[in-house]
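Hi R.,

As promised on Friday, here is the backbone we talked about, encoded as structure tokens. Could you run it through your design pipeline when you get a chance and send me back a sequence?
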């Protein structure tokens, strides 16, 4: 255990030097860091540890995903499918309605109940068909299609994942560093944006293009009475009021593949968009068939613009104009590029953490760390003399290695993460205490200094590895099942355990061995 090859010595020294180099950007300050990055070779590390929301300030929002609206829409869609299927089978029906998450319908001729059941049986596998009578003993007179529970669960899980992905794309496009976007509970999404002074709006971004219904009079529009197959939709921030549009869209935003800002004919900001092959075909066919008519571009239930189709548009590209500022057009293009949210999101909680509060947290963490290191240093030197000094030097390497790894991994440091580092300080010293006590035992048994050191390190090694592994398992469980700050604590704890094993076992042993070779002592200062 006291023999070190030249290669092993070189490797340990190299790792220590790299740790210090990677940790330096975290302690030099912003101005010195810029000089460091500009004056030093590009291959030297210049990355600092990302600070979390609680350390550098930022925005926090808790959102609830409104699943019920989407589930109800699926039921309404099924009602339309039931009507079309019965019409196709030439079965006259009555009482077609939705009841909660079910669709109920009855044939006008009771003897066609079985025939209607056959038509509707395979209409949608997500719905369970049940024949009902007036009571348990009566023959069935109507059919109920219930939304199956497993289908609801699959749909809500899919909506949740899609919503998180869309939010992530929109936030990433804003250039926010290390945002935290994760599911909380069954129907909530937590979004944290470190460094952001406000939370950007998250509209649903559901785009569709409809034909304007020319059969609707201004009186009908004013009274909100749309003709069958149409709906009244208001203009977005426009004195034009509202317009009647056909309910079925020409093309939906699902077919959108690109959006960018541009300049219109009048020099005003516009948004240019482009459809995929299917969308381009639908859009082109509609503009050929309805040249001269108005089409409405609708976003989240509001008409952005309703231009007249002057000529067929066959390239699959279009333009959205309106009373846009440059920022409005840029925001809309971003929303369209990132895709539509699958469901409405309701803000439940929103707050902004000021940078001064984060600075106070950093200062408190630094103070706690310095006090902890100070007391530990006094104890180690008082208890173990020179060897305690070796342990404290290794501890400084350990702390540098923690920040080096966090910087290299791009991890985010939070206040609980600082707690994990402080805890690691104690764990790192514990390993050295264990080793030094083993060496003392060997000295009391009459061994020579070299033999006592060799035996002490050897006997303590297994215990240190076992203790570190159990702590690593605990940290892995915290990371796997925890969230937010708990994960930050788990990351710094796990990184600290790994670096502690390196410094306690390798770095201190190297220093002790080099001291032995240099001084060849007859007794040990323990």
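Update: got your reply. Pasting your designed sequence below so it's all in one thread:
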């Amino acid at each position: 255990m006291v023999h070190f090859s030249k290669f092993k010595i070189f490797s340990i020294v190299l790792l220590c030097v790299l740790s210090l180099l990677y940790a330096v950007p975290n302690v030099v300050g912003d101005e010195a860091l810029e000089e460091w990055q500009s004056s030093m070779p590009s291959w030297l590390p210049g990355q600092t540890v990302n600070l979390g929301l609680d350390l550098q300030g930022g925005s926090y929002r808790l959102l609830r995903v409104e699943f019920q609206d989407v589930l109800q829409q699926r039921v309404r869609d099924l009602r339309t499918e039931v009507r079309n299927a019965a019409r196709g089978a030439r079965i006259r029906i009555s009482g077609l309605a939705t009841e909660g998450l079910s669709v109920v319908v009855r044939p006008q001729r009771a003897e066609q109940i079985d025939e209607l059941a056959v038509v509707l049986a395979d209409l949608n596998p997500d719905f369970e068909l049940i024949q009902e009578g007036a009571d348990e003993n009566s023959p069935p007179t109507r059919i109920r299609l219930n939304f199956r529970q497993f289908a609801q669960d699959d749909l809500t899980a899919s909506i949740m994942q899609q919503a998180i992905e869309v939010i992530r794309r929109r936030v990433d496009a804003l250039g926010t560093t290390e945002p935290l976007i994760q599911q909380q509970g069954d129907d909530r999404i937590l979004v944290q944006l470190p460094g952001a002074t406000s939370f950007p709006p998250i509209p649903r971004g559901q785009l569709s293009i409809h034909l304007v219904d020319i059969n609707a009079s201004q009186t009908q529009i004013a009274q909100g009475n749309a003709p069958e197959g149409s709906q009244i939709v208001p203009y977005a921030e426009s004195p034009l009021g509202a317009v009647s549009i056909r309910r079925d869209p020409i093309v939906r935003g699902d077919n959108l593949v690109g959006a960018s800002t541009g300049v219109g004919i009048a020099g005003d900001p516009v948004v240019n968009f482009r459809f995929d092959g299917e969308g381009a075909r639908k859009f082109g066919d509609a503009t050929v068939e309805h040249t001269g008519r108005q089409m409405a571009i609708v976003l989240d239930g509001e008409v952005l613009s309703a231009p007249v189709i002057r000529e067929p548009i066959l390239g699959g590209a279009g333009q959205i104009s309106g009373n846009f500022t440059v920022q409005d057009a840029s925001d809309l293009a971003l929303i369209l590029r990132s895709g539509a949210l699958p469901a409405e999101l309701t803000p439940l909680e929103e707050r902004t953490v000021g940078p001064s509060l984060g600075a106070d947290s950093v200062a408190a963490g630094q103070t706690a760390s310095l006090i902890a290191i100070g007391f530990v240093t006094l104890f180690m030197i008082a208890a173990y003399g020179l060897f305690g000094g070796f342990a404290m030097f290794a501890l400084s390497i350990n702390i540098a290695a923690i920040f080096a790894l966090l910087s290299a991994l791009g991890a985010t440091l939070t206040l609980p993460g600082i707690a994990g580092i402080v805890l690691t300080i104690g764990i790192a010293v514990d390993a050295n205490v264990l080793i030094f006590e083993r060496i003392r035992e060997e000295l009391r048994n009459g061994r020579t200094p070299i033999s006592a050191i060799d035996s002490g390190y050897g006997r303590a090694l297994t215990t240190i590895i076992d203790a570190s592994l159990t702590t690593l398992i605990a940290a892995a469980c915290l990371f796997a099942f925890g969230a937010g700050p708990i994960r930050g604590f788990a990351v710094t704890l796990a990184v600290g355990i790994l670096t502690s094993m390196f410094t306690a076992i390798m770095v201190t042993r190297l220093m002790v061995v080099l001291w032995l070779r240099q001084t060849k002592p007859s007794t040990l200062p323990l």
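One thing I noticed while checking it: The longest strand covers residues 345-353.

Thanks again,
M.
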